[in-house]
Request: fold
Amino acid sequence: MLSPTILIPAILNGLLTGAVYALVALGLTLIYGVLHIINFAHGALLSAALFAAFFAYRLLGLDPYIAVFLLSPIFFAFGYALQRFIIGPASGGDDRNMLLITLGIAVVIENALLFAFRADTRTIDVPYAFKTIDFGFTFLAVPRVVGFVAVFLVALVLWLIMTFTDIGRAIRAVAKEKLGAELAGIDVAHVYAMTFGLGSACVAVAACLLIPNYYVNPSVGNSFVLIAFTIVVLGGMGSVPGALIGALLIGVVESLSGLFLGESLGQIGIFVIFIVVLLVRPSGLFGERV
Amino acid sequence: MLDQKFPISRRQFLGTTALTVAAAATSSMAMPSVLRAQGALVKLGVLHPVTGALSYSGQQGRLGATIAIEEINAAGGIRGLGKIDAVLGDAQSTPDGGTAEVEKMNSAGVACIVGGYASNICLATTQAAARYELPYVVDVGVADTIVTRGLKNTFRFGPGFGVIAKTALANLATINDQAGKPAKTVMIVHEDSLFGSGLAKLLNAQLPQHGFQILETIPHPTPTRDFNNVALKIKAQNPDLVIPANYYNEYVLLARTMQQQQVRPKGIYSVLGGAASSYKFVKEFPEAAKYIMDCNHWFDPRSEKAQALKKKVEGKDQFFTYEVYMNYSCVYLIADALQRAASADRAKLTAALETSTFSGHVMPYGPTKFVNGQNEGAAPVNTQVLDNDIKVILPPAFANAKPVFPMPA
Reply:
């Protein structure tokens, strides 16, 4: 088991799986990490985005890597509207209400998907789905490698938005001191909605990069969300680099603990690391000390 | 400023309530309902997990049952009793959900219940129905304990786990012997719940008796998001045979990953394989599915009725899965018993099911004979993916192709 012919491919696979987790966690780190909205609808939104990517391919013939440019603005608008017209007004700014409302939205989205498309598992068969890159000691699937590269681009774009744009500064200001930001003239409701929109757009990107190598059904998003919440806390709430590094770390830990402890116990490694990090550094790997 | 006694404003309350109502309305789309047949006299409970983790199988099961009911009603219903009134129920993929539906169906006055699908649901629902002496025909649920608890109301038309595993092992040995024993080593990849673990335990105990050496048994949870490590382990040990025992999504991911990692054993042999006997898998991933063998529930490929049903289901843009034809058959079994009992009385119907010799169905079974609720004629068959189709390779009486083993390079 310690043979490099298994160990090195397992680490590489862990990094590729971690990239997929990072794509889901990036959206969540904005919504959960910055706005402190425990967004239970994140998984349902991922399912919806996977369905959107699926139908974009099946009905419009759009390759998922092209559909990403259509779906991310659509999901941005959807996320914006969701926060601006449903979550915001119905919650009145109360965290508990937000939690219940996002839970309600998750139920609505999942059941609407179930009603519309049945529980059937669907997949797409793009020409490059089975293409692999031969490294001599292992094969890496092309869609997973594309996802790995894309996640760094998405993270870079998000980091640039958060660091250098007005909306990024406004988001950080609202996250730090909502009342102060409001007094400084920032439209808090708009900033909340923009953040939710950005988070939802990330979900659409994740879906387009995931679908060539994965499947979609109405509840598929849930299997990523618990991991994504863990990554957000592990990496540091609201930290884009934290979500990225945290996700890659989790991917490798899961892969190695799966290898040594068995796939059934693979998740144990994740939560051991999670607990250790929280004990040693409660604000997360890249979180600001409070 | 809000009144302290009422920490939520009218506007907030209305907003939240509207959302909750919307959620409830949408959820209820998949809730129990009744398909009323005009002038119906016989109520039949049709119980499946149509929401939750097992919803695809549940919906397929419901489809098979409702097609049979529609056919029977279109032909005039049960002679002397009238048409069948289907009382649809959703077990929500949990035993508790199933039990609650049995209570509702009993209150609705059903003569019999068909369905359940998963073993854990069937164990709970058959027991709940037994309290009311309500006849219950299990559609799939393979756990042998379903029919060994002495419940007089419980009947299973399909084969149980013990029969399936025994047949699977015997057929594997036959296929290997016929090919000159090319396979000597085996790796088992199984999901870690009751179904996969039980099967792995049985295979570990019995495969060595058939001359196979088990190199490793790899359990995995459901869902598993990535099978690359498993594929790497298989590749490192290079077994002659890989035996997967998991549900559809994981089966497909495993087969795809094995293809990506260029893992090529001499054969992939499944027992109740989630995808190996699925037209959907074959259609969507013909390369990954090629030459995979499975011992599973299957229809009689030579039966004209089965072919007509397949056409009908595919005409509805659905895949012809085992849940469909097993439920279809179960409803016809009940209809046959109702006709012979000439009554919807539960005791009379139970007696009629006990003595059933139901024939002319779409399954490749021997003569129907219920012993302690289990149809002794029920048996699985071996299938193999050949020429982008699923063919029956064993037993010879129902076969429409010969096994191709070892897999061509």
The radius of gyration of chain A is 19 Å. Residues 110 and 218 of chain A are 6 Å apart (CA to CA). DSSP finds eleven helices and two strands in chain A. Chain A touches chain B through 53 residues (CB under 8 Å).
